[in-house]
Structure formats: structure tokens, C-alpha cells
Amino acid sequence: MLKNYFITAWRNLVKRKFYSAINIFGLALGIACSLLLYLFISYHVSFDQYHKNASRTYRVVNDLQFGETIHEKGASIGMYRALRSDVSNVTNAAVMLSNYSFTVTVNNLSKAETRFKENKNVALASPEWFKMFDYKWIAGDDREFNLPNIAVITQKQAVKYFGNQNPIGKIIVFENRQPVKITGLISDEPSNTDLKSDIYLSLSSLNNIRPGTFDNFFTDWGWINSTTSLYLSLNDNKSRPEVESAIAGLAKANIGDNAKYYHFWLQPLADVHFNKDFGGPVQKSLLATLAIIGMLILIIASFNYINISIAQQSKRLAEIGTRKVLGGTSWQLFIQFMIETFMMVSMAIMVALAFLSLILPAANQFLFSRDPVQLINYKSIIIFLGILLFGLLLFSGVYPSFVLSRINVFKALKPQAGTWKAGLLRKLLVIAQNGVAYMLIICAFIMVLQVRFLKNTDIGFDRNAVVMVPLPDTSESKKDILRSELEKIPQVASFTFCRQPPSSENNFGGSVKFDNRPDWESWPAGSPAGDTAYVKSFGLQIIAGRNIRESNASPEYLVNETMIYKLGLKKPAEAIGKPLIVGQFYDQKGTIVGVVKDFNANSLEVPIAPEVIANVPEKFSSIGIKLYGSNLESAVQKIQKHWEEIFPKEVFEYQFLDDQIAHLYQKQELQQKIIWLSASVAIIISCLGLLGLVSLVTLQRTKEIGIRKVVGASASKITVMLSKDFMKLIAIAIIIASPIALYAMNKWLQGFAYRINISWWMFVAAGLLAVLIALVAVCFQTIKAAVANPVDSLRTE
């Protein structure tokens, strides 16, 4: 019996292949899109959950109470040493200093030395690191990791350095002076971790790799840095409050009165990947939004199926009536229609998997290039597909199957137009699916405008044609040689030795003490360091006083407008000549000599903060070069030539400043791209649904169309007649969806200190786009019906 159901279902699908294709293709698109979103969501949710003690592992973070709360994800080596030995309920403690950059020299089989610039992919870790966290060891081990000058590298790095040779026991040289022995090789997998670098050096190597490291860096709790991550494993989660209390006590003992500004607490490992305040790359709110979008796309794909299935009612009335006359029950008809749905959904899932295999590599290249999405667990995909199959069967199949199986035998054998109730349902479904599509269009449209605004708005300094080049040696002799060579290049307008450009991902700062006030200010100030050409090279505007000068007697400071008002001054000129102590610049007491116009030191998500600029050569690590002319690449090549002559044992690298700033908005750009993708899929599915419905409607009204043409109706009038009802539904969908989209986008834009204003024309533009796309889908079928020969439709009369 079951076999007959499937044979009959297959024949029905083949018999109505146009509508079957529309349903399968629409469902497949929706499933493929939801699968891609599921992979993205499940991939990020799985981050660092595979470690054996993940549920009992925490990162030490702190909230710095400086008038306003500043969230700091970093710790210090002094804290690590204290917590490792002085706190009960802590089973293990490990620290990692990440995002280090070094020049690495490799001598492979007596060939010429090869140098590599490792940029922010080197970490120094304590001996306990590989015991606390799970890595896949390919060769070697961590038994010597407590010794200095020991390294563990990833397989990717080993291939980069040595090809297919075994790297264990080989020597690589850091900074052209310090040999390091490789004792361990770990897999590049799994990729779903925030605790990974390409090269791990033993923590005891730091003094050898960086000889200038201060001695108190290893003992003073005050050396808190965002790149220093301290993790603890506890006996059990119930002991967390006790450990946090013990940390507070140790802080008071080690920091003294300043401990009152710090609130140290333990952040669960599961929260590290998602907490925006502490550098989490992905927010749970984004994952929730994508999950909702995935469900909405599946819903509108299901609406297509329901709509077309019920709309085909008139074509299947004779079949239904005949089956009932021959003794078929409503239950048997219900099973028949459910099996048809099962076959259609199953084929749609197979097509969706084929789509996904084709689009995932492209999605990883264009959407997720920085962190490619990978399939972590096949079992979870199978379970997801099983739930999806059951859910779509329930949602898409039950209602149309129930409606069709309950049709009265007399009505079935005497075909009539669809009931008003069925017509109303179809209209509501069309409104719903087109409303969702329009909502995604307007959201994507506003996101594109906001991201463009973030990238192109005036941020208070000149970021165009500025090249940032790291400096391996900032000694005066090297800087003098480089300075003289750069002055010979015609395209170089100016250049500045500095720590960072005015806007950067690396935010250095600290407390300040103004004038003769007894206390330090209750808020921090950013502290970009640059020489006397900093203002000119980055196009900063001095609005009071003068620029800083070379001075060994007393430091000179430039401050921004926001700092003036945070200090309680009414005019910029009031600060000129006043003393200032800056914590970030070694507590040096200097003089404010000028005020610069406000500039955005961070992304436009946050307001402008107080800033202090000073000429502190010890802080310099880069050179910013302002270029002019059209052939910028030629200028960069000349800079590279001179740079390599001055630093022959280093690897030249550079980045344009506008590219660095664009990188600040990669999260928003990813959101925008995903919403665009989802909107495109929703539009295609909605158009497929409209195409199927219009096809059925024109089929049902074939003879009416023929009569109208015979009595003189033009093709254009018939097209308008057939299209206007659908256009009304789309207009209603736009009206309903607009306030929902407005509310959602207002909430999203509240996350930016600087944002665009939502205007009426955005909704009009998105609405016109939605109507135009729908009109193309509708008119494709209505024009075909309108220009058909009326003789063909009236021949049977």
C-alpha cells in the first residue's frame, strides 16, 4: 500500500512538473540559506567548547572604575604568579601573551636564509598552557616548554618554514639574534577557538626575545595589557565567588589604594567569544538575528508551498472526487498528500545540499574571509536536517493536505471557484512573504548606507594616501638615515615617526593629572605618540596654541577639544601653558602647548574620547608617510627599496591607513552582506511564489481572457487586470512591514555614536525596488496569457 502511495505521488509530481519545480526550487533556496546560517551560528557557538574542562575554565577580566566603566580583558604576569600559588580552589592557571610580531629567519638544508615577517601571530605562553587547553599534537610535546627559547608551532607554519620535513628539533631565529628550538608540532584544527596562534614561545623566552623588557613586568600587577590573557581552572563552578573574593584581596595587597578602581571577576570561557565589552568578535544578538532570518526564509518558502498547493485545488478536484467515489477515505487522501509533501521536501533538501556545497567556498571567500565557516560536526547537521524535514512536513504539508482531503465529494465532482476563505488565506500568505522580503531589503539598504557612512565620513584627520610602515629599529641613527632617504622621494609629502595613527585598533591610554589639582582625573585619556610632524602628516588641525617641538627639557603636549571640556574648561585657550602629567608617558610632567580639533581615535561606534599627543621616541614603532600624486604604488616601491637597504635583515610590510580604518568596520560589513544575501534569497522565493500563483490564476481564467480579447480588450488591459490584485497585496505588505523595519533599524543604529538618519526616501526606494521585482515576476506570466490566441482557449466551448 505504502509503495502505491509513493508511486502515485511521484506521478503527480511529474505530471505537474512546472509547479513541482517551483516548490522544490523555492524550498531548496530557503533550506540552503538557512543551512548556511545554521553553519555560521553553530560554528561560533562551538568556540572553545571542546576543551575537557571548558565548563570550569574562566578568564580573569576587570572593570576599571574611572568615572565611567572601562572594560579590560587583559591581566598581568604578576597576577598569574600570585593566583597560581596563593588561591585555593584554583586547580590550574595559565597565561598567554598574544598578538606579538617578530621577524623569523629560517635556514633550511643549507640554503640561503629565508626571512618571514610574522605579524600578530606569535604568542608567549606559560608551561601550563598546553595542559589546561586541548591541542592536537602531531609530533613532539610540551615537556620542555618551561625552558627558555622553546617553540611549539602549527602544521601550517611548519609547511611554510620547512615544507614536508619534520620540524622537531629544528632551529628558527627571532629578530636576527635569538635562536629558538622547535619541540612541538600541533594541528591547525580545530579552527573554532580564540586561543590559537601560529607560533607559541615559552614564556621564559621573553627576556631573550625582547631584551628591553622591564624587570617589574613579571611581578607588578600594574602591567595589565589587553594582549595578556590569564585563565584559571576551578575545582567546581560553585567556588567562583570565593576565587573572585580572593583576587580582590590580592589586588588590594599588590596595588594598594588603587585597588578600589579595579573590579576583577571571572569570565566563563563560553562567554569569551561573544562578549563585546571584552573583545568578543561575534555578539549573540547577531546570531539570534541570523537565526530569526533563517526561520523567516524557511517560513516564506513554506508559504509558497501552501499557497500553490491550495491554489491547485481546482485542478485536483476531479482526482479527489473520483478517489472518494471509489471508496477512498479522507485519511487515505491525507496520507497521499503528505507523502507528496515528504517527497518534495526531501528532494528540496538534496538540492539544497548541492547548492550549499557550491556556495560555501564562495561564502567563505567573500563573507567569512577572516574566519572561514567550517563544518565542525556532521552529526549536528544530520540532526538539524531531520528536524528541518519534520518541521517543514508539519508546517508546509499538514494544512494543505487536510484542506484537500476534506473536500466534499459533490463539490469535487462539480468544480467551482475557490472559496472566499481559501482566497483570503492565499492573500495573507502573499502579504506575509513579500512583507518579510521587503523588510530584509530595507534593512540591508540602511546597513549599506551606515557602513558607507562609517567608512567615508570626516573623522577629523586626513587618512587618504597615508602609508603605515612598521619600524624594526627606532634608534636615532636608523631614523636619521631613513629620514634622509624619504626626503629624496618626490611623492612623499611628509612623514612622521609614531606609535600609531590617530585612529587605530590599538588603544593606548591612561589617567592624567591636570594643572595643580590634587587628584588624578576620574576618566582616562588616549595617548598617541608622535614626533613634531605628526600633526602635518595626518592632517590634524590646531585650533589653539602651537604644535609640539623637539625638547629634551620638558615634555610638550597637544590635547583635543573633548579633553578641554572634560577638564571643565570653557575655551581651548585656557589650557595653553598649563602643566599636565600623563600616566601613559611615564608620569612625566609636561606642558600643554596646543589644542587640536577633535578626531575619531576609535570606530564611530563610540564617542570621541580625550586624547593627548606627545613626542615620546621610546614609544615609536611605526612611520606614517603621506603621499601625493597618482602613482602611489611606485612611491611605495621606492620606500621599500630604501627601507630594505637600511634594514637588510628585515621583511618590509606596509598598509594604507584607509584600509586599516575600513578594517574597524568588518563586523558591520559582515552583517550587511549576510542581510543582503538573505534579502536576495527571500526575493527570489517570493517571486517564485508569485510566478506559480499567477500561472494558476491565468490558467483558471483562460476562457475569460479569451472572451475579453474577442470582444476587443487589448493585451495591456488584460495584463493590468491580472496584475493589479497582486500589486495591491504587495503594496499592503510594504505598508505593514515598513514600521517594523523602522523599529528594527532604529534599534540597530543606536549601537553607533555616529549614525545616519533614517529618511522616508529610503523606504520609498526599497519599496519601488520590491514592487519592480514583483512586477517583473507577475508580468512575465500575465503578458504570456494576454498575448495568447483566444481561439485556443475558446476551442472547447
List keywords for this structure.
797 residues, alpha+beta, six-stranded mixed β-barrel, six-stranded mixed beta sheet, 24 helices, 49% helix, globular
What does this structure look like?
By secondary structure, this protein is an alpha+beta fold. It has 3 domains: 179 residues, no CATH class; 219 residues, no CATH class; 198 residues, no CATH class. Helix content is 49%, strand content 17%. The protein has 24 helices and 23 strands. The strands form 4 sheets. Strands 3-4-9-6-8-7 form a 6-stranded mixed β-barrel. A hairpin with a 1-residue loop joins strand 1 and strand 2. Helix 9 runs parallel beside helix 20 and helix 14 crosses helix 22. The two termini are 40 Å apart.
What's the structural blueprint in terms of helices and strands?
Blueprint: H1 2-15, H2 17-45, E1 57-66, E2 68-72, H3 77-86, E3 90-106, E4 114-125, H4 129-132, E5 137-140, E6 150-154, H5 155-162, E7 171-174, E8 178-186, E9 199-202, H6 206-209, E10 228-234, H7 240-255, E11 262-268, H8 269-272, H9 284-311, H10 313-325, H11 330-366, H12 378-405, H13 409-413, H14 420-456, E12 466-470, H15 476-486, E13 492-498, E14 509-510, E15 512-514, E16 525-526, H16 534-537, E17 542-545, E18 556-560, H17 561-566, E19 579-582, E20 588-596, E21 612-614, E22 622-627, H18 632-646, E23 655-656, H19 657-663, H20 666-700, H21 702-710, H22 715-749, H23 760-786, H24 790-794
Parallel strand pairs: 4-9, 6-8, 18-20
Antiparallel strand pairs: 1-2, 1-10, 1-11, 3-4, 3-7, 3-10, 5-8, 6-9, 7-8, 12-22, 12-23, 13-22, 14-16, 15-19, 17-20, 18-21, 19-20
